[in-house]
Amino acid sequence: MSALPLRRASAAPEHPSPATVDASVLARLTAQFAATAADHDLSGAFPRENFAALQARGLIGLVAPAEHGGGGAMLATARRVISAVARGEPATALILTMTYLQHHALTRPDSRWPAHLRERVGRDAVENGALINALRVEPALGSPARGGLPGTVARRDGDGWQIDGHKLYTTGIEGLSWLAVWARTDEAQPRTGVFLVPRNAPGVRVIASWDHLGLRASGSHEVVFENVAIDADHAVDLRAPADWAPDAGSQTDIDAHATQQAWMTVLLGSLYDAVAQAARDWLVDFLNRRAPGSLGAPLASLPRVQEHVGEIEALLRTNRVLLDDATAAVDGGHAQPATDSGLLKYTVTGNAIRVVELALQLSGNHGLSRRNPLERHYRDVLCSRIHTPQNDAILVAAGKRALLSSGAAA
């Protein structure tokens, strides 16, 4: 029941330190990925060539722990990479974001994963470009962030576990090597947690159901687990359900959770902000080139157009300042509370959506044409709303905190 051996890398990748991930490398990747983004959007095909390019530059293992051969990158560097990738092809960036988040979790001081499995996942990324994601959402449960026990069940089977269940929105499944599966045990007092499953384990079946408005190349299909056998130690983190609460455990545990939440919101915020930047770039070029005969000058010369582009610049600047501030806090060891991370996501993604809406307003039919990328940027940026935490949960948490604080002060 052991995980299958690691694949041999077809070519030795570069392994740049975080300091050597320079702007020229990222700019070339942005342009390369943008050149085929429309094709991936149309076909929904997994962007394998994009991940080959990332691996050739050592960027898939950039966040993996340094002691396992990875770059051990801090959030600022991870954010630069995700932003550059997303500016070219955001589905690739989303899949890479999920791998970066899992790799960062391997370094958490509260990690309960066995050391040899942390090392195996990290080295697999560095040597082979292996991707990993968490599989959490289910047809009946929805997102576990809303509470409830998962329907995916792990049963003891001899010296290992047997897993049965059904997961939705398994981003990147066509290219993943490792699945961090959220499940419950069948014990009298069920525990919940993460089971590390090799993607190629017998009994893992993909239902190709992803046909989405945006991020179409993310391949976020359904996955069914049927009698999937793993070793006992692949139950990498099991706890009583109450012990998964963000405020459970020691202060170290609480701080580690806040840091992980901040990584997630900063990287996802950077991704969708980059989509908005790509929309802004297309719009500015269009407005400078488009010169209707009735005007006799480019649209960029109109004060009304200049005003709305100024609004776009203000929205993007706000995003940049907020993301820079949150990133500096995390890398300085002072991650903001989870509620503030949620507000960051709410503001940045809302601004990104507004940027693309303004671009569509200014470009009219041209922006809605399938031959131009703006309508694709709009479809992609709308996907920002569905990531955990969703807007309603963010605002309720922030409202409760404000009201309780006000009540205590009174």
From TrEMBL:
<dbReference type="InterPro" id="IPR009100">
    <property type="entry name" value="AcylCoA_DH/oxidase_NM_dom_sf"/>
</dbReference>
<feature type="domain" description="Acyl-CoA dehydrogenase/oxidase N-terminal">
    <location>
        <begin position="29"/>
        <end position="98"/>
    </location>
</feature>
<protein>
    <submittedName>
        <fullName>Alkylation response protein AidB-like acyl-CoA dehydrogenase</fullName>
    </submittedName>
</protein>
<keyword id="KW-0274">FAD</keyword>
<keyword id="KW-0285">Flavoprotein</keyword>
<feature type="domain" description="Acyl-CoA dehydrogenase/oxidase C-terminal">
    <location>
        <begin position="275"/>
        <end position="386"/>
    </location>
</feature>
<dbReference type="GO" id="GO:0016627">
    <property type="term" value="F:oxidoreductase activity, acting on the CH-CH group of donors"/>
</dbReference>
<dbReference type="InterPro" id="IPR013786">
    <property type="entry name" value="AcylCoA_DH/ox_N"/>
</dbReference>
<dbReference type="InterPro" id="IPR036250">
    <property type="entry name" value="AcylCo_DH-like_C"/>
</dbReference>
<feature type="domain" description="Acyl-CoA oxidase/dehydrogenase middle">
    <location>
        <begin position="138"/>
        <end position="228"/>
    </location>
</feature>
<dbReference type="InterPro" id="IPR006091">
    <property type="entry name" value="Acyl-CoA_Oxase/DH_mid-dom"/>
</dbReference>
<dbReference type="Pfam" id="PF00441">
    <property type="entry name" value="Acyl-CoA_dh_1"/>
</dbReference>
<dbReference type="InterPro" id="IPR046373">
    <property type="entry name" value="Acyl-CoA_Oxase/DH_mid-dom_sf"/>
</dbReference>
<comment type="similarity">
    <text>Belongs to the acyl-CoA dehydrogenase family.</text>
</comment>
<dbReference type="InterPro" id="IPR037069">
    <property type="entry name" value="AcylCoA_DH/ox_N_sf"/>
</dbReference>
<dbReference type="InterPro" id="IPR052547">
    <property type="entry name" value="Mito_Isobutyryl-CoADH"/>
</dbReference>
<dbReference type="GO" id="GO:0050660">
    <property type="term" value="F:flavin adenine dinucleotide binding"/>
</dbReference>
<dbReference type="Pfam" id="PF02770">
    <property type="entry name" value="Acyl-CoA_dh_M"/>
</dbReference>
<dbReference type="InterPro" id="IPR009075">
    <property type="entry name" value="AcylCo_DH/oxidase_C"/>
</dbReference>
<dbReference type="Pfam" id="PF02771">
    <property type="entry name" value="Acyl-CoA_dh_N"/>
</dbReference>
